[in-house]
Amino acid sequence: MNILIIDAQGGGVGRQLVTAIRERLPGADITAVGTNAAATSAMRKAGAACAATGENAVVVCSRRADVIVGAIGIVIAEAMLGEITPRMAAAVAQSGAKRVLLPVSHCDNIVAGVQDQTVARLVDAAVQELSKFSKFQNGSCGGV
User: Fold this and answer.
1) Rounded-to-integer distance, Cα 32 and Cα 17, Å
2) Least confident of 37-41, 59-63, 75-79
3) Taking the alpha carbons of 53, 57, 59, 65 in that order, is the dihedral positive or negative?
4) Could you say which of 2, 5, 91, 139 would form a disulfide bridge with 144 (CB–CB 3.0 to 4.6 Å)?
């Protein structure tokens, strides 16, 4: 299973996701795409098998992923202080992949009806959801 993690700004959420997935789902094939070099670097250092940066990387990798993971802002154009372009948001939303979205209320996007939780708890819940999917296979950017 090819997991694509998308993050912006400093890559802190993405870094935590990569670390948690590596620990709890060691067979997962993780590709990280940052909207900027800092986000990509943080996820790569955390152990993502492959990493890329920018709009086109989000578009291409979204087509090839089995699961896309990130803050809910990755499906909202102009979210994350404008780092999510309309093309990125459309690519994630239109992907055939399953999406595991963390309900983070930031940057003028408020998720109503969701209890405010720490990023660590949101990451834990995301990994629990991922573990419900079919078996993970090791690979080096196999399908992503």
Assistant:
1) 10
2) 75-79
3) negative
4) 2
**What span, in angstroms and rounded, lies between the C-alpha atoms of 112 and 12?**
23
Distance in angstroms (rounded) separating the CA atoms of residues 112 and 103:
9
The answer to whether 31 and 141 have CB atoms below 8 angstroms apart is yes
58-62, 65-69, 107-111, 134-138: the lowest-pLDDT one: 134-138
Q: Look up residue 88 and give its two tokens.
A: 């990125």
- Nearest alpha-carbon partner for 28 in 37, 39, 38, 19: 19
Q: What's the whole-model pTM score?
A: 0.85
H helices of 1-144, where?
Answer: 12-24, 37-45, 55-64, 86-94, 119-131
